[in-house]
Amino acid sequence: MSVPASSEVDPQLQERLRSVDPVVFDIVLLSFASVIVFSALGLRPGSRLVPLVIGIPTVIALVAQTALDIFRFRHPVQEASVTGHDPLDLGFARLGEVVSAAVREEAEDTVLPTGEEARRRQLLFALWAVGLGVLATLTTFYLAAPIGLFAILLAVGRSPIKALLVTGGVLAFLYLTFDLLLNVPF
Amino acid sequence: MHRTTARKLPTVLILLLVFTLVLAACASDDGGETTTTTAAATTTAAATATTAGETTTTAGPVDDCDGYPTQDVVLVVPYNPGGGFDTWARTIAPYLETYLPNGVNVIVENRAGAGGLVGVTEVFGSDPEGYTMAITEPGVLVTSLIAGTTDTAFDELTVLGQLTVAPEVIVVAADSGWETIEDVQAAAADGPLLMATGGVAAVNIVSFDALGIPWTNVVHEGSGEAMLSIIRGDTDITVFPLSSVEENVTAGDMTPLVVVGTPPAAGQPGADVIAGVPTLDEVTGIEGLGSALEQHRILVAAPGTPSCVVDILDGAIEASFGDAEFLTLLNEAGRIPGWADAASGQAILENTLSALQQYADLLREQLTD
Amino acid sequence: MIDGLAGAFTDLMTWPSPLYLMLGVVLGLVVGILPGIGGGGAMALLIPFTFGMSPAHGIAFLMAVGASSGIGGQITSILVSIPGDPPNAATVIDGYAMTKQGKAAEALGAATWGSMFGAVFGMALFLIVLPLARNLVLAFSYPDFFMIAVAGLVVISSLTGGKVHKGLAAAGVGLLVSFVGLDPVSGNPRFAFGTLYLWDGIPLVPALVGLFAGSEMLALFSVRGSQSLAETDPDAPVSRMIDGLYSTLRAWKTVIVSSFIGFFAGLVPGISGTLAAFVAYGQAKRMSKNPDQFGHGAVEGVIAPETANDADKGGGLLPTLAFGIPGGVIMAVLLSGLILHGVPAGPNLLRGDLHIVYVLVVAALLPRFVAGGIVLAVGTRATVLTRMRGDVLAPIITVIALIGVYALRNEPIDVLLALVFSYVGYGMEAHGFSRLTFIIAMVLGSLIESSYHQTLQTFGLRGFVTRPIALILLFVTVATLAGPPILKRIRRRRLVEVGGDRK
Fold first, then answer.
1. Which end of chain A has fewer CB atoms < 10 Å from its terminal CB, N or C?
2. Sheet of B73-77: strands edge to edge?
3. What pLDDT score was predicted for residue A185?
């Protein structure tokens, strides 16, 4: 690949970055599966049987998937066809053929961000949700919920008055249902 | 650079000011009182922090029980809704409310998990101010302590009292052909019996060891499924609280063989069901073994709860058991009141610990990998 | 029997019973709408409330809460993709898809009608089967549980789609997640790494809420931020609740099959309503004339699970009343409620006075109709939510969902877990792993493993092939797996014979 001009770096870099996502996710799944398999090895024979029987093939499948996605990442020019390689020839595959059209549709349907703006919002929302969760865990929902709600409503451009009203309304609803009705402690 | 620092400075100062004010406010509540109880020390430190989920105010320590209780009390049920402990808690809660001073509420919370350990652990770690307590059973706590399945020193809990005590019963299917425990012991010579459990507890391990019966554990999702499997005939034998097996024995599906603990007095619910059945102590000749294994339901609070607080809670529990309405409710539900005060409750916990200590190896072997 | 039912009905209609019923219905609906906390939890919280009531009233009230919570749960599942209760998880898939297409009202209507039909069928089956209750419950044992679970896995195979390897990986990971928790052999915790939190395994509800709601809310916020949730074709006729009724009536075969599936799931204590919903979903897809629609707003994908999980309540009464052994949290609470009011549920109940049984049946059905009626009348108002801006709706829903998750067990780590699973759900959506497969595997895993070990311990290996029910299920499973490919081969061969060389 030729060295791109600075103005062309962004889209291509974005493209490559985006193809890292599958690899990252594969590795996340793979790590989990591997942890289970490794700790299963230390169990009594009866207890480790089923986890290993399921776990080892899963790890293998995920390793294969990771390798495939790394390959795609390194060679993004390659046309990533929907069925990258032959599905395993089991009974499933036949059924799979029948609904593969649906799968392709599904892949397109997945309304996940492709544009720049959408991706930024995605990051915003994700960070907000995590922050909310952490704040609520450390302090209390009574504090975290209104703060979080108000903050994000402002961030998306709603007027402070509206944001306040919505936050107040939601808070009242939460109080009525969870606190009065169900006596859930916060 | 300077501009931003200059802008940040006032904010930092203000934050510092607020922080010191808060600290000062909390500290002033201590008012220089000195006490010898460790309770005061821990509560002072904890007063400035909020423990998520339990106390909602940062009140100062209660070393002189000044006006205890000043806020709602939480009763933690370390099991899912609908079980025996849950029912007991929800039945007694309104009465505790009545008999605790200052008109505070008693709120029941479910915190299930780890066979009842999650809820108790939470209370164990809470502020010893008397605002959180749990309903639990000494057997579960002691077993975990001895086998080392968790790190919590459950024997340090403050016991507030016992609510009831009920025996467990070793049962087999009615059509198994076994009539007495001796029949079972004979059958066990051919090989280990299949025991249906909803999870292994001390009562299974210890009583069967004392009876000399080898067994294999067939684990089930819960006591209900375990009992069904006995009735179906898929497993051979099991041990469950009297209240759980009562119906099935009356219906003729199960035969009781041994009573672990003290049978209820004549006329009390369940008494006729196990009339004539020998107790574990009788069969094995080991005194007091049954009482260490049977099901005591006790109320506990965090270690180091001040004794004046304990007295108040103890008194409220005692008063509840003196309330005719409460007793009627219990009777209708087929529950037997078995109140014992805080000191007795503490003794029960200690007795269970010492009785089961000798089985430490056995427990550890079964309960850890 | 009819007099018994009529008697119970008049009992429940005499003042002040209707008041308690209404109260229970309203409370149940509200609780059902709130994500996280479910009918069972609410019922437990409200037991002390019933102390002052007579047994019949108290039971009726509790049943009303439990019954309506299921219907309330449908609303959030369909409108905002958050399962109100695990059994609603299957409804989320097509229900939310329909909402996005602007057909929320139809979906709600279909779900409500499906629930009501399912409840009626379930109760009818219950009454018919009642004399045989004991034998029926005792007929199912470990090998049968195992086969049922395996049948559930076969359902997964039909939902996996083209990327078989990814589907299998998703199933594998789902199964592994389910293995965390209590070891079915020793009863001790496994893969918990010393924590109390993981002792009982990874909790289903936070995982479910995170998995389904997480990526949907994310998408709602980021992609449809400035638009409303529902994308309506201005030329299409406005979806109405009554369309839901027509759809349900048209899908009568699905309704009946799903009811049976739900009833049997309730009957067998080890099988949860969640599993029933998924199996019904899979079966409906298999029986459908347009299976490709499933996952994209097929109304049968809404009807099937909701019918099943309401019929499940009917089946669930059998072990509860016949043996005093509850088949779920709602049943457990009901049981303790019964006991508290001096009604000894257990084997003797069915031999003695059946009056309370009839009260239970009517108390289970009546609130469903009332709740259903309320939803049908007022539900269209709720769909106004779908017209709110995505970037306002999403944060609100997220906050409520997280609080609901917390309220379930008062465990803050559950909230974090829900967030973790939101990422997992997002990742799965973005990279082609089937969340449905994952969730089914997660629900099934522990059942498969425990029933496998239980069978080995009690029957031995032969147990899998010597019991009638297990054998039937095995045959059905094999037929479902091998059937379509074999049929295809036969058809192809016929084509060749008829039309000469294909090339």
1. N
2. B106-110, B73-77, B132-136, B295-301, B158-166
3. 56
pLDDT at position C359: 78
Between CA C271 and CA C262 the distance in angstroms is 10
Nearest-CA residue of chain A relative to C43? A182
pLDDT band at B3 (very low <50, low <70, confident <90, very high): very low
For C51, the closest of B231, B247, B329 (CB atoms) is B329
Instruction: Tell me: pLDDT of C502 over 60.
Output: no
Per the structure, the complete domain to which residue A165 belongs is given by 116-181
Give the end of a domain, one of A59, A78, A108.
A108
Q: Does C403 touch chain B (CB under 8 A)?
A: no
| Mean predicted confidence (pLDDT) in A89-112 | 42
Q: Which has the closest alpha carbon to C444: C283, C328, C278?
A: C278
Go through the domains of chain B in sequence order and give each one's CATH number.
70-166+294-367 (3.40.190.150), 168-293 (3.40.190.10)
A78 lies in the same domain as A157: no
Contacts of A186 in chain B (CB under 8 A): 53, 56
More reliable by pLDDT, C121 or C380: C121
pTM: 0.80
Give the residue-averaged pLDDT of A118-136. Answer: 84
- From A3's Cα to the closest Cα of chain B, the distance in A is 37
b/e string for B326-361 if b means 16 or more Cβ within 10 A? Answer: beebbeebbbbebbbbbeebbebbebbbebbeebee
Give me the residue from B52, B74, B107 closest to A137, CB to CB. Answer: B52
Task: List all residues 6 or more positions away from C101 whose beta carbon is below 8 Å from its beta carbon.
Answer: C230, C231, C232, C297
Condensed to tens digits (0 to 9), the pLDDT of residues B98-112 reads: 999 888 999 888 888
Length of chain C: 503
Contacts of A74 (CB under 8 A, 6+ apart): none
Three-class SS of C177-215: HHHCEECCCCCCEECCCCCCCCCCCCCHHHHHHHHHHHH
A1 within domain boundaries: no
Higher confidence at residue C46 or residue B362? Answer: B362
Q: pLDDT value at position B58?
A: 36
A69 and A29 co-located in one domain: yes
Share of chain A above pLDDT 90, in %: 15
With beta carbons less than 8 A apart as the criterion, state whether A103 and A82 touch.
Answer: yes
3-state SS class at C389: strand
DSSP for C65-110, please give it.
HHHHHHHHHHHHHHHHS--SSGGGHHHHHHHHHHHHTT-HHHHHHH
Separation of alpha carbons A38 and A146, rounded Å: 43
Residue B29 has a pLDDT of 35
Phi, psi of B298 (to 5 degrees): -125, 160
* Domain termination residue (choose one: A79, A108, A137): A108
pLDDT at B97: 92
Residue C330: closest CA among C344, C314, C342: C314
What are the angstrom distances between the C-alpha of C301 and each of B4, B272, C149, C383?
Answer: 58, 53, 21, 19
Residues 6 or more apart in contact with residue B95 via CB below 8 angstroms: B319, B320, B323, B325, B326
**For residues C71-81, average pLDDT:** 86
Contact across the interface for A118 and C222, Cβ inside 8 Å: yes
Contact A29 C173 (CB under 8 A): yes
Please write the tens of the pLDDT for every residue from C122-181: 999 998 888 888 888 888 889 888 888 887 777 666 665 556 778 888 889 999 999 998
Read out DSSP for A62-105?
A: HHHHHHHHHHHHH-TTS---SS-SPPP-SHHHHHHHHHHHHHHH
Same domain, A78 and A100: yes
Whether C437 and C171 have beta carbons less than 8 Å apart is answered as yes
End-to-end alpha carbon distance in chain C? 67
Chain C contact present for B227, CB below 8 A: yes
Average pLDDT of the residues in B252-272: 88
**By the 8 A CB rule, do B251 and B227 touch?**
no
